[in-house]
């Protein structure tokens, strides 16, 4: 029986390690294939077998994977990185292994292509335009009407996503984005008002709806999540049905999907469909609240097993992220012990260590840590997460004085 479970690259926020640990727990040997495996600290810390390869070259990967299949046997191929899910799917298909439709994943990852396909299916009518130049971005914004959201057609974690309230801002942000040689095109979208939610889907079935909390505009940094979202059942059902219609229209029915939307006065409007597990530790919120382990389920699906995704409990979970209050030198942290005393706390961690020079980017990379809680009620889970968050203070020398600053 094949024992290798191949991972093409990894994400950098914790899920990659959990995928590898889960593979081991299920009796498989995780093997990470990456351009620079050493950039993922858990590979060395957990003694994960790794192979260095050019993961941007499908021909190179195919040769390597086929060699491993012949010599040791490959049980499954997947990735915890959104950027390599389509690549992993193509490699899995080559060996006759389970995986999502690679073409559907690749089309979904291009936000402009995704919008076009949803338009063709009659799913949502958010005004948008794909552009490849600064002048075109301004013209699109004129046609759509200010303010607009401007973002790269490919990306993740809110990287490069910005609200532009003036034509000058549209031109300036387009210029910054297009200066990156990897950014081939931009998407200009109308702004949708309303609270933001995400729908967690697994194998064409809705697992639940997450309430999302965003930071200050013009950026869209996710500062916290609550699961399940506090919604009336009729509203939750409407959101779930809307999300499923979108994923099915995109040809995505295999494995985990993460659909982001806003709930306006006239109903839900799509932000984007992500052909992967949710980030931001939402899978852990789901596990704490329902007992459903979406990471384990994804790994089991990749090796041809039938995962169990039936809830075993009914609780509530919340996470609040810790961010620096200013740019500058982070040189100390206060309040960790007080935060650890918060009730219902399940996980409190910092992702980085000081001293560290902070330069906020307006995306997920601004987050320095999190407090995650679960409790019998959502109110208790949220209160505990906020208590832990507010207890922690980062000392940031924004002006060289080292004055005390509190997490925003």
TrEMBL record:
Keywords recorded for this protein, A-Z: ATP-binding, Ligase, Nucleotide-binding, Plasmid
One Pfam family hit: LAL_C2
Presence of keyword Nucleotide-binding: yes
PROSITE patterns reported for this sequence: ATP_GRASP, CPSASE_2
Ribonucleoprotein in keyword set: no
Gene Ontology MF: a single term: metal ion binding
Protein name in UniProt: ATP-grasp domain-containing protein
Native source species: Azospirillum oryzae
Phylogenetic lineage: Bacteria, Pseudomonadati, Pseudomonadota, Alphaproteobacteria, Rhodospirillales
């Amino acid at each position: 029986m094949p024992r290798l479970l191949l991972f093409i690259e990894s994400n950098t926020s914790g899920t990659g390690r959990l995928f590898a640990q889960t593979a081991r727990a299920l009796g498989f040997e995780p093997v990470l294939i990456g351009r620079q495996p050493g950039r993922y600290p858990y590979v060395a810390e957990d003694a994960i077998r790794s192979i260095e390869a050019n993961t941007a070259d499908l021909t190179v990967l195919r040769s390597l994977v086929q060699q491993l299949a012949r010599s040791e046997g490959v049980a499954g191929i997947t990735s915890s990185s959104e950027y390599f899910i389509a690549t992993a799917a193509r490699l899995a298909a080559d060996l006759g292994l389970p995986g999502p439709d690679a073409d559907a994943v690749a089309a979904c990852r291009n936000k402009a292509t995704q919008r076009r396909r949803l338009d063709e299916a009659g799913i949502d009518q958010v005004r948008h335009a794909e552009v490849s130049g600064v002048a075109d971005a301004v013209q699109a914004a004129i046609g759509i009407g200010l303010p607009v959201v401007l973002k790269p057609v490919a990306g993740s974690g809110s990287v490069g996503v910005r609200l532009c309230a003036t034509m000058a801002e549209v031109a300036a942000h387009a210029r910054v984005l297009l200066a990156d040689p990897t950014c081939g095109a931009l998407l200009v979208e109308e702004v949708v008002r309303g609270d933001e939610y995400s729908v967690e889907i697994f194998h064409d079935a809705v697992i639940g709806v997450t309430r999302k909390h965003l930071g200050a505009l013009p950026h869209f940094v996710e500062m916290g999540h609550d699961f399940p979202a506090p919604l009336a059942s009729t509203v939750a059902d409407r959101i779930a049905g809307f999300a499923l219609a979108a994923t099915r229209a995109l040809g995505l029915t295999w494995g985990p999907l993460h659909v982001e939307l806003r709930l306006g006065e006239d109903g839900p409007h799509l932000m984007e469909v992500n052909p992967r597990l949710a980030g931001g530790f939402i899978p852990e919120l789901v596990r704490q609240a329902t007992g459903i382990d979406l990471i384990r389920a994804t790994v089991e699906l990749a090796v041809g097993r039938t995962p169990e995704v039936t809830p075993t409990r009914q609780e509530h979970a919340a996470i609040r992220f810790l961010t620096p209050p200013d740019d500058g030198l982070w040189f100390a942290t206060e309040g960790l012990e007080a935060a650890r005393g918060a009730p219902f706390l399940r996980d409190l961690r910092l992702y980085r260590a000081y001293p560290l020079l902070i330069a906020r980017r307006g995306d997920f990379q601004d987050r320095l840590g999190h407090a995650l809680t679960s409790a019998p009620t959502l109110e208790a889970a949220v209160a505990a997460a906020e208590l832990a968050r507010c207890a922690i203070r980062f000392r940031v020398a924004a002006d060289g004085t080292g004055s005390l600053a509190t997490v925003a």
